[in-house]
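pinging the channel bc i need a second pair of eyes. not urgent but kinda urgent?? the chain im working w is below, pasted from the shared doc
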Amino acid sequence: MPVFPLNKFFLQGSVTEQPQDNVRRTDNDAGPQKTRRRYTAKVNTFNGQLFLNGAEKKTLKLFFDNECADGAVPFTWIHPFEGTPVSMRLVGTPQFQHVSGSINQGARSMFFRCSLTVEILP
């Protein structure tokens, strides 16, 4: 399993967690809905941001395209809240926003804010 290639963590204050809805609800002819648990193991989704220079941006794009097969292959990275290594998968593509720097000064002088969505796998 690939390992996340950057020694980076989500920026403080940028992480949100969205636990998977794990309850199945069924309407009845009368009375309250029936509910049951869908899965014994569920996926939690996290959104967060990284601050990258141009070289790190290129490394992340290559990792996503090749080692993660555009998000189809899971990888190992540090859990955003627990700090332990876990298996996760990228959801969608990384989004990059140019923050500062100029290409005239070289890739390492350009800085980007990268938004990622990951699923923590059971």
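so The helical segments are 54-67. and The chain is about 10% helix and 40% strand. — does that match what u expected or am i reading it wrong
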